Amino acid sequence: MPSAMTLMLLSQLRKNLLPGQKFRRYLVYALGEILLIVTGILVAVNLNNWNAKRNGQQRLNETYKLICNELKADSASFGHTLRAWK
Asked: What's 2's DSSP letter?
C-alpha cells in the first residue's frame, strides 16, 4: 500500500501535468495514434495472409493442371504401346 507521502507526491505530479487539460488531450491523441497503428498492422497482416492463401491456391491449380497433362500424355503413350502389342 502506498504511503501518504507517495500519494501526495503523485497527486501533486498529476496536478502539474494537467494544466489546462493539455496532458489529457495529448493522452487521447497518443491513444488514437496507437489505435490507428495497430489497426494498420492488423490490416496488413490480414492482407498478407489473404495473398499467401491466394498464391498457394494458384500453385495448387498449376500442379493439378500439370498432373492432368501428364496423365493424358501417359494415357496416350500407354494406348500406343497397347496397340503395338496387339
From this structure: -
Is 32 inside a domain boundary?
yes
User: Structure pTM?
Assistant: 0.55
How does pLDDT run across 21-61, given as a tens digit for each residue?
677 777 778 888 899 999 999 999 999 999 999 999 999 99
Contact call for residues 23 and 17 (beta carbons, < 8 A): yes
Which residue's C-alpha cell is 493539455? 22
Structural domains of the chain, count: 1
Could you list the residue range(s) of the whole structural domain that residue 39 is in?
20-85
Classify residue 3: in a domain, yes or no: no
